[in-house]
Amino acid sequence: MNEQPSILNQYLAEIRDVDVQQDRLRFRRNLERTGELFAMEISKTLSYKVTEVATALGIANVPVLTEYPVLLTILRAGLPFHQGFLNVFDRSENAFVSTYRKHHKNGSFNMEVQYASIPDVEGKVVILCDPMLATGSSMIFTYKELLSRGKPGHVHFATLVASMEGLNHLMSSIPKAGVDVWVGAVDEELTAQSFIVPGLGDAGDLSYGKKI
After folding, report:
1. Domain enclosing residue 188, as ranges
2. How far apart are CA 133 and CA 136, in angstroms?
3. Is residue 72 part of a domain?
């Protein structure tokens, strides 16, 4: 979790601000910038090898990534956040999953996949990013869909704002080994309608407009 104040807090403050949210371009850009910061932190955990780079004046020995992570996001709210990761990991392969909640008359629901585009992930590092973690159901369901396509070597879960309930649900539903969870902020309340409070609203609607 983001316990040490940094510029991330400034971006998050603007993302939450109802007045700043009226500017969709700025809202998307702020999500993108937070993705870039998350990517930088996650990059410190990846594997590197030293390579020789010819400069105008000689040879420099520079540590470079041995392999770029696969970037996976959940449509559509995850796209600006995902773009921030892609700006940093610009050679990465990308994966996209679209899920939806199928509600039942008793108030319960189950998750279903509408669309999935996932490259080979066998043995690879995967970053699964989504700006909001409310109940945790979408991220867990997407993770299961990922595992149905192959066994990654390591999975990083990245979310900007999580509810405590959703975070606990995620942590209890994923393995203890081979995963890391990265969170910008944790909010205590989750409403009966699965809205995080204070949260920031619907990231998809704020990025791209309300859906019918």
Report:
1. 7-208
2. 5
3. yes
Cα 198 to the center of its chain, rounded Å? 19
Which distant-in-sequence residues (6+ apart) come within 8 Å of 40 by Cβ?
88
153 DSSP assignment: S
Q: How far apart are the first and last CA of the chain?
A: 34
Q: What is the pLDDT of residue 109?
A: 61
Evaluate whether residue 1 is within a structural domain.
Answer: no
The β-bridge relationship of strands 109-117 and 94-103 is antiparallel
Integer Cα distance of 198 and 51 in angstroms: 47
CATH of the domain at 16: 3.40.50.2020
140-174: pLDDT as tens digits: 999 999 999 999 999 999 999 999 999 999 999 99
The answer to whether residue 2 is domain-embedded is: no
Q: How far is CA 1 from CA 62, 150, 155, 200, in A?
A: 30, 28, 17, 17
Quote the CA–CA distance of 172 and 118 in Å, as a whole number: 25
Structure tokens at 20: 């700043």
This prediction's pTM:
0.91
| Whether residue 11 has pLDDT greater than 60 | yes
Mean pLDDT computed over 186-191? 92
Q: Give the tens place of pLDDT for each residue, 69-112.
A: 999 999 989 999 999 999 999 999 999 999 876 666 666 666 77
